[in-house]
Prior knowledge:
The protein is of the alpha+beta class. The chain has two domains: 8-94 and 163-195, no CATH class; 241-480, no CATH class. It contains 19 helices and 13 strands. The protein has helices at residues 8-34, 39-60, 63-73, 81-96, 103-114, 158-170, 185-194, 196-200, 202-215, 245-251, 254-275, 329-340, 343-353, 364-374, 387-398, 403-410, 418-434, 440-447, 472-476; strands spanning 122-132, 136-143, 148-154, 222-223, 227-230, 234-238, 243-244, 277-279, 287-290, 311-314, 320-322, 383-384, 437-438. The strands form four sheets. A five-stranded antiparallel β-sheet has the order 1-2-3-6-5, with helices on both faces. Strands 4-10-9-7 form a four-stranded mixed β-sheet. The longest helix has 27 residues, at 8-34.
Amino acid sequence: MSDLPRKAVTRTAKLAALPLGFAGRATWGLGKRIGGKPAEMVAREVQQRTADQLFKVLGELKGGAMKLGQALSVFESALPEDVAGPYRAALTKLQEAAPPMPTTTVHGVLEEQLGDDWRELFIEFDDRPSAAASIGQVHRAVWHDGRDVAVKVQYPGAGEALLSDLTQLSRFARLLGPLVPGMDIKPLITELRDRVSEELDYGLEAQAQQEHAAEFEDDADVVIPQVVHQSEQVLVTEWIDGIPLSEVIADGTTRQRDRAGQLLARFLFSGPARTGLLHADPHPGNFRLLPPVDGMTADDPDGPDDETPWRLGVLDFGTVDRLPGGLPGIIGDALRMTLDGDAEAVYAMLREAGFVKESIELDPDAVLGYLLPIIEPAQVDEFTFTRSWLRSQAARIADPRSPAHQMGKQLNLPPSYLLIHRVTLSTIGVLCQLGATVRLRDELESWLPGFLLEEECEPAEDGERDGAQDSAEEAAAVEV
């Protein structure tokens, strides 16, 4: 039996203990400052102690607690190294695994969902989970037609646990603020809570994954496993091998890191243009670096070396943003105008779209000054994402004394852009964990509506689609 806390009262008690610990550390920190210890040093110690307790508790729970832990884990690059270092391994573990549910429980779900003769659907079924996440765990198996498959089994009561945890966590969200400087965590928790019903719906997940699989079926760069079978609490998809992105982050070569980063950026921007869907859970546990030849394993002695164009395998489509027209054109327009230094035009566009409330008047040049450092990766042909760069951005926005902090508080994020914003920030966090050198501008020019003026776009050949609707073959031809 797993020792995972399952009863609501146990989960609530563990989560409720967190703010008490935060308050105790705040009092301890105040005492240290009164005793003459520098405020910055005290704040760093409080931050580290808070992180240690938070991720210890989140790591012991599934449901919304683990979901928040995974969402926060991609932002560890924004933390000072002496704070992030000690618990980076714990964050990686949150991305890949959690305590498994008992085998008898797994079998019970399979019997209920697939029938008493569920074993006849499989030639082999491994009772040991290969991965576990916030609402379900994955088992490797061989389907009755001989295909290797991944069988995702939803935890009984997962929905209740998700809602309960996120409700509890939202009550002291402001206390989590110091963990990720410059980020308001309460909207993140609210957005996660709002999407619980979607993530629990394996029908919606199967549909989103199959639409991606069909679009990327012949893609040279991105691999999406096909859906094999779906029921209310069981989802069976094709199995894909490869190196988990967490391992690339920890031990990958420079070429592997750069390749993974380029393809991650490509998938982020091309997905909405090609499918009308945005994969909205970009933590490293959902990506694999795959060899270019089917049937070749990553450790094959005759397999790919650093010169080989590895592919990106993408998993878990439980959370997506539905964008029928692709990413909103205002994003590309505003980004292009910002790069051109057109402060007045950028300000007018942001005001019209609701990023600046009608009751507030801001200096357009100050708005431009706030945005330019953030979009630095798009200003150059290629950019190396680093933890130090992200830390500098986080510190600039988080410092209450800085103009950037004051500007950030005055700007408004319309609800329709919240998920896009989170996915973009999360992807940047992963790129910084990789330390990848990426030609981001190439991907923006290829896939982001509005980023290139129409007269700048090359005319399409006969039979090809324009702009962001170019064929998969043309996209795959962009060199990495």
